[in-house]
# Entry
Amino acid sequence: MGVFRTLLVVIFICIFGYTAIVAANHGFGLLAVFFGDIVALGWPGQFNVDFTGFLTLSALWLAWRHHFSPVGIALGMLGFFGGGLFLSVYLFLASFSAKGDMKELLLGKVRANS
# Structure
């Protein structure tokens, strides 16, 4: 679990640092660039469509893990729009809540104990 948590910290630091540099150099016009690349039908757009699929799966997993409760839906939205930056923090904190039990981390407390 220590290696997993370390990976989550590294992911967070890398994404946060990279995002800060890009925002400082190019501003916060992400959506125009993101969708512009998709419309152009090139490899950057292909990556963006693929990434959107991962964001969708992440959001659905978060909402499902919390039984599609209002909190679960809110976490799903944060997962979709926050991407790896949010998910790395969520998993880091949830790993402590689950006391390192990977089954509980992935399924949630109720499903892991049933």
Remarks:
- The chain has one domain: 2-112.
- The chain has six helices and no strands.
- The chain has a mean pLDDT of 95.
